Amino acid sequence: MFAYFFLNLHANIVMKILSFILIPIAFLIYTQNIRNGSNKITNTTDTSEIIELNNNAFKSRLINPNITITNAKKALQLSFKLNYINGIAESYRVIGVGNSYKNSIDISIENYLNALSYFKKSKNLEGEAKVYNNIGNLYRDLDLKKSLESFNKSLKIAEKLKNKNLLAGLYLNIGTANQQSKNYTKALSDYQKSLSMFITLNNKLGIIQSNQNMGVLYLNLGDYQKAEKHLSDALKNAKEEKLNNSIAAVNLTLSSIHIAQSRFSKAEKTINEGLLYAKLLKDTKLEYNFTIVSYELENKRKNYFQALNYLQKAYKQDSAKYANNISEKISLLETQHIQLEKQKENELTIAKQKNTQILFWASSAIAAMAFLVIFLLIKNVRKSANTNKVLTRLNLEISKQKDDLDRANQNLEEIIDDRTKDLKVKNKKLSEYSSHLSHQIRSPVATLKGLMFLEKDNLIEKDEFVEQLGYCINDLDDKIININENLNNPGKSGLIDND
User: Which of 110, 266, 274, 467 has the smallest C-beta neighbourhood within 10 Å, fewest atoms?
Assistant: First the structure.
C-alpha cells in the first residue's frame, strides 16, 4: 500500500513537470515551424524540377525572353511552396534576365535585388556573384561607373570561388563596358581572356558572344577583315544553336561592315535578315538600331529620299526611346529606393529568424534539461520503489517477529499463571506446615522441657526420665518425617495430626 502511494505521488510530480516544461516548448517549436516553415527539403524530385525549370528558362533568353520569364515564374511558385531559398533566389534572377532582354529595366532590377537578398540569406556566394554580374549588364547602357562597380564585386567573388565559367563571362562583360567607354586596348585584352577561357571550357554560347563582341570592337578600330571574321564565326554558331537574339545582333554589326566597304547588296540582305529576328523577338531597341543602319545604307547609296524616311522613323523611335529611357531611369531610382527598404526589411527578417533560431536552440536545450530531470526523477522513483520493497519486506519480517513475540509472551503468561498457582498452593501448604509445626512440635518440646525441670529438681527417676525422653524424641522424629513427606509429596492432601 505504501509503495503504491509512493509511486503514484512521483508519477503525479513527473506529469506536472511534463505539463509545465514540455507543453510550452512544444508550442514554441510549433510556432517556429508556422513562421519560418521547414528548411528541410524532403522531396528531391521537386527541387530537381525547380533547378531544371530555371536552367531551361535561362537557356531560352537568347531565343525567346517570354519563355524565360514564364518558366522562371513557375520555378518561383514551386520554390516558395517548398521554401527552397536557393530556388527562390535563382528564379528571381532568371526573371530579371528575361526582363533585361525585353528592355524592362525597372522590373529587371527589382527581381535582381530580390534574388540578391535571398542568395545572401542562404549564404550562396556563387549566386551573389551572378546577380552582381547581371546588375552590371543592366547598368551598362545607363551608368558605366556603376556597371563596373557591380562587375568588380562579382569578379572578386568569382576569383575567390575559382569559378571559370563565371570569370569568363565577367571578362566578356567588363570588356564590353571598357569598349563603351572607348578603352579599346583594355576591352580587347578582356575579350581575348574571355574567348580563351570559353574555348577551354567548350562553352559554345560564350564563344559566340566573345566573337560577336570582338567583331564590334574591330569594327570600331576600323579593322574590317578581323571584324568580319569574328562576326561570321559568331553568326554561323548562333544559327546552329538557334540563338535569335545573337543572330539579330551579329547581323546588325555585319551590315555596318558591308556598308563601310560599299557592299550594298550584302548589307541590305543582312539588314533584312537581322530585322526579321528583331521583330520576332519584339526587341524595339534592335529594331531602332536596324532603322539607323538602313538610313546609313540608303545615305551611302545616295538614295536620299529613302534615307530621309528612315531618319524620320529613327527620330520618332529615338524620341520615344529617350522618353522611355528617362522614364526607366526614374523608375530605376524609385525601384532602388523601394528595394533598399525591402532589403532592410529582409535584413530585419533575417535577424528575427536568427533570434527565432536562438530561441529554438534555447528551447531545445531546456527540453534536453527537462528530459534529463525526468530521467533522474524516473530513476529516483525506481530507486525509491526498490527501497520501498525492501522496507515492505522488513516490515513483514518485523510483523512476523512481533507475532512470534506475542505468542512467546502468551506462553510466558501461562507459565507465570501456572507458577503463581503452584506458589499459592505451596504458600498455603507452608502456612499450614508452619501452623502444624508450631502445634505438633511444640507439644514434644514442652514435654522435654517439663522432663528437664523434673530431672533438675530430682523429681523423676532416671530410668523413667530416659524412657520418657525416648518417647518424646521418637514422637518428634515421627512428626518431622511426616512434615518432610508432605512437603516432598504434593499429592498428599494434608498433614497427619498425632495428638
Answer: 467
